[in-house]
Write a structure and sequence with these properties.
By secondary structure, this protein is an alpha/beta fold. It has one domain (about 5-150, about 180-210, about 255-265): Rossmann fold, CATH 3.40.50. The protein has nine helices and eight strands. The protein has helices at about 15-35, 55-65, 75-85, 125-135, 155-170, 170-180, 185-195, 215-225, 230-245, and strands spanning about 45-50, 70-75, 95-100, 110-115, 135-150, 200-210, 250, 255-265. Strands 1, 2, 3, 4, 5, 6, 7 and 8 form an eight-stranded mixed beta sheet that branches. Helix 1 runs parallel beside helix 2 and helix 5 (about 155-170) packs antiparallel against helix 6. The protein is globular.
Length: about 270
Amino acid sequence: MTDSNDWGVSGGGAEIYETVFVPAMMGEWASRAVTLASPQAGMHVLDVAAGTGALTRLAAKSVGPSGRVVGLDLNSDMLDVARTIAREPTSAPIEWRAGDVSAVPFDDESFDVVFCAFGLMFFPDRVGALKEMRRVLRRDGRVVLMVWGSIRKCPGQLAMKESWTRHFGADEAGLFDRQHSLGDPAAVRSLIDDAGFRETDVQEAEGFVRLQSAADLARGYGAMAEVQADERTRMAVIGEVTTALKPYVGADGLAYPIEAILATARK
């Protein structure tokens, strides 16, 4: 690690995602998604854009050893980390598969449930990706989708975007716009309906991002994205984000609200 990207967080991007962001902001949503889908023992489940597998492992626990679970992701580094994390002995075996959602590498009607948590906003062809998810679902199967809500309702991401824009420019800060580019429930519903699903339900939900400090948020994003910056700039970003999030710091550290949009539909 060179001085120009020493944000004080060790590991590669996938490792930082797992150690910093999964416990801080992803874990509770994985549980909500599985509750919405309510997969039963023996079911076949696909997790699209599985990342390091927080949701995948919960789904495997739900369907038990008689079920089948696949975690699909384009990023092989994420899957490498996922493979190192132990699953519970009573869970279904998990197949980690590298693949593109534009051509899901499975036969028609292979799965009872398809999850996609916080990936849809990054897909170049969103309707095409949803059609692929629908294709591999069995008749009456269920899709469960989650995307981040409006950035205006997520003060941490807004503070990061504003600081990165000042120091690194709009292109680098565009990461946060992309994260929240499907922050309109009506837009999410339209995509699902255009893909041919039925019984679509879309709802907004609030969760929280929890870290020891705002500095951990700034350092985590900087390290995960490998943003090049000298020490003075890094300290400026950390200081600006810390100041912006001061109202959300308490005895247990940083806790700020973040909105997500949760959607379910049937084939």
